[in-house]
Amino acid sequence: MTRLMLAGVILAVAGCTAPAPEPVVDVSAKSAALADRFQADLQGQLQAAMKAGGPVGAIGVCQQAAPAIAASLSEESGAEVRRIALRERNPAAAPEGDLRDRLEQLAAAPLTAEGKPAVMQWTSDSGADARAHFMRAIPMKEQPCAACHGTSIAPEVQDKLAELYPADKATGFKPGDLRGAILVSWPVGAARGK
Ligand code: HEC
């Protein structure tokens, strides 16, 4: 074995791929599973809250539940799980860096040809800080979304939204628009697990 080859083997074993491009890591299956759980859990809580207290009561439930579900799925998986949006309600959902461009691409085509929420995947950074990202569209629907994100929102819902989210940008959506996206980001470089 030449010294060069040996060096390559050692680098590969150490997980240090500095000179070579980061391998594409397919995180789609485990990311989609997390995104499904996020949506199912939140939808369950939202539906129960709408039934119990109508949209006004459900806003507070959503405010508590959404970040809590994101935090617990992140904790459990080691990925960062969050929702983002071009016109956000929760200020923490604002897209930073290149996320805005990617969301704009997703907004241009939120659904696949089969009518499923569109997905984008990419890897950012390199080496130790490399992260594999999975982003899935959350399309706007009439029911139940329009009560809190639609084009004609009841005045008492508007008041509650203004109270809890003074900088709310997440109204005026029509069915089929991109309401936002679930973003699941995995550490895949040597810094994994840090
Ligand atoms: C009862 C009112 C209500 C209903 C109904 C509702 N939402 Fe929301 N939505 C909220 C609130 C409140 C937040 C902010 C939650 C937070 O603080 O993290 C939010 C946040 C979001 C976000 C995260 C991005 C952002 O703007 O903060 C997405 C995406 C979203 N909603 C999509 C939907 C979709 C799709 C539906 C229909 C399936 C829906 N919502 C139904 C109240 C509602």
List keywords for this structure.
binds heme C, single chain, 4-stranded antiparallel β-sheet, Beta-Lactamase, alpha+beta, 194 residues, 5 helices
Commentary on this structure:
The structure is a single chain. The chain has 194 residues and is of the alpha+beta class. The chain has one domain: Beta-Lactamase (2-Layer Sandwich), CATH 3.30.450. The chain is built from 5 helices and 4 strands, in the order H-H-E-H-E-E-H-H-E. The chain has helices at residues 3-14, 28-77, 99-108, 146-149, 155-164; strands at residues 80-84, 119-124, 131-139, 178-187. Strands 1-4-3-2 form a 4-stranded antiparallel beta sheet. A hairpin with a 6-residue loop joins strand 2 and strand 3 (131-139). Helix 2 (28-77) packs across helix 5. It is globular, with a radius of gyration of 20 Å. The model is unreliable at 6-13 (pLDDT under 50). The structure holds heme C. Residues 46, 55, 58-59, 62-63, 66-67, 83, 85, 88-90, 93, 138, 140-141, 144-145, 147-149, 170, 179-180 line the site of heme C.
Quick take:
This protein has helices spanning 3-14, 28-77, 99-108, 146-149, 155-164, and strands at residues 80-84, 119-124, 131-139, 178-187. It has 194 residues and is of the alpha+beta class. It has one domain: Beta-Lactamase (2-Layer Sandwich), CATH 3.30.450.
Strand content: 15-25%
Largest sheet: 4 strands, antiparallel
CATH architecture assignment name: 2-Layer Sandwich
CATH class, anyone?
Alpha Beta
Topology as H/E string? Answer: HHEHEEHHE
Q: What strand order characterises the main sheet?
A: 1-4-3-2
CATH topology: Beta-Lactamase
The structural class is alpha+beta
